[in-house]
UniProtKB/TrEMBL annotation:
Protein name in the entry: gibberellin 3beta-dioxygenase
Highest classification ranks of the organism: Eukaryota, Viridiplantae, Streptophyta, Embryophyta, Tracheophyta
Listed InterPro entries: DIOX_N (IPR026992), IPNS-like_FE2OG_OXY (IPR044861), IPNS-like_sf (IPR027443), Iron_ascorbate_oxido_reductase (IPR050231), Oxoglu/Fe-dep_dioxygenase_dom (IPR005123)
Stretches assigned to the Fe2OG dioxygenase domain: 193-295
GO biological process: gibberellin biosynthetic process
EC number, as in UniProt: 1.14.11.15
Keywords, in A-Z order: Dioxygenase, Iron, Metal-binding, Oxidoreductase
Cofactor section: L-ascorbate
Keyword Metal-binding: yes
Native source organism of the sequence: Rhamnella rubrinervis
Length: 345
């Protein structure tokens, strides 16, 4: 085990043992930029799903302006979200060597590791993650070989189920706001085939937050992402009109909904995927949980016919989620440009 963790360390592909360092190591020191200010006078919309009379139009406006909004009264029980936070903290507070038993393989999607976008930056991020697709039992056994991991698995499985349900509901509302029905987008909105990935994020207390980066600016590759911030601030969204970073203040029990790149493609760029980042702080160990919702494995995603006409030609060529993730792994924030039709303006 030791030799494996040593070789990963040498290649810088496993997270730091955050508890073992006192100051910010050079490997994690970013040059602070003042290029884009923090904007405290604006905030992303908060939409009450219980008030179904105008939720759809509020969602449409939020997707056009921000690509992100928060939902309340979404139907996922607060007790389950609290359990989710507890189990997430339980995992990340394990000793570093224990977490490394469940390290994500280079080709794998699941397990413990650095943010996948780390290779695009000269400095490392002040965070670690753990991805789950389907049953987490195998990784849970590696993490807790002696202890009971039933609770961890039950909570993660229940959350995946609930988040899949909420994603389906949100997709319906987002499509509706574009004037589309499930009939128009055959192949989407079918729980049996849609794919979801639950991703736990951990941002330990940081000795020098102004020179560290929790999660560097990125858009998600999904159709949409649900994010539970566990009541600790840190998420910021880039506002393209005012050119600044807007904090997404956590609201107890609220879930953040992000438009991902695949929805950007399907809406023919009417809805922009939201550029966002996570900052860290000195006092709190912040955890968050993202659920990436995507189309069925073999479905080629392309701009919806109904949203295109001679004045609005399809801007992107068809891609599967897997093909898009491959493009993202090579081109990162330029992936959307790479799949843009060359004939469109
Ligand atoms: C399905 C996925 C989306 C994601 C890559 C992944 O395979 C699993 C982790 C996801 C995540 C979480 C942190 C930010 C992000 C850009 C990354 O590096 O890994 C996203 C990826 C994404 O949306 O492209
Ligand atoms: O932790 C957060 O607030 C953001 C997480 C995120 O952007 C992600 O997991 O893709
Ligand atoms: Fe994200």
């Amino acid at each position: 085990m030791n030799s494996m963790s040593e070789s990963f360390k040498a290649a810088n592909i496993i997270p730091l043992d955050f508890k073992a360092v006192l100051g910010l190591p050079d490997s994690h020191t970013w040059t602070p930029t003042t290029e884009y200010p923090l904007i405290l006078t604006e905030s992303v919309p908060v939409i009450d799903l219980f008030d179904s009379s105008n939720a759809m139009s509020l969602i449409g406006n939020a997707c056009e302006k921000w690509g992100v909004f928060q939902v309340i009264n979404h139907g996922i029980a607060i007790d389950l979200l609290s359990e989710l936070e507890l189990q997430t903290r339980r995992l990340f507070t394990l000793p570093a060597d224990q977490k490394l038993r469940a390290v994500r393989s280079s080709e794998g999607f699941t397990g413990y590791g650095l943010p996948r976008i780390s290779s695009f930056f000269p400095k490392l991020m002040w965070s670690e993650g753990f991805s789950i697709m389907g049953s987490p039992a195998e990784h849970a056994r590696q993490l807790w070989p002696q202890d009971d991991h039933t609770n961890f698995c039950n909570v993660m499985e229940q959350c995946q189920k609930e988040m899949m349900g909420l994603s389906e509901k949100m997709i319906g509302l987002v499509l509706g706001s574009l004037g589309l029905t499930h009939e128009d987008v055959k192949g989407l909105g079918c729980q049996a085939q849609a794919q979801g990935l639950l991703h736990l994020n951990s941002y330990p207390e940081c000795p020098d937050p102004s020179r560290a980066m929790g999660l560097a600016p990125h858009t998600d590759s999904s159709l949409l992402t649900l994010l539970y911030q566990c009541n600790t601030s840190g998420l910021q969204v880039f506002a393209h009109d005012t050119l600044g970073w807007v904090p997404v203040d956590p609201i107890t029990g609220a879930i953040v909904v992000n438009i991902g790149d695949l929805m950007h493609i399907m809406s023919n760029a009417r809805f922009k995927s939201a550029l966002h980042r996570a900052v860290v702080n000195k006092i709190h160990h912040r955890v968050s949980v993202a659920y990436f919702y995507g189309p069925p494995r073999d479905l080629k995603v392309s701009p919806w016919i109904k949203l295109t006409d001679p004045d609005h030609p399809p801007l992107y060529r068809p891609v599967t989620w897997k093909e898009y993730l491959d493009a993202k792994a090579t081109h990162f924030n330029k992936a959307l440009e790479v799949i843009r039709n060359t004939t469109s303006s």
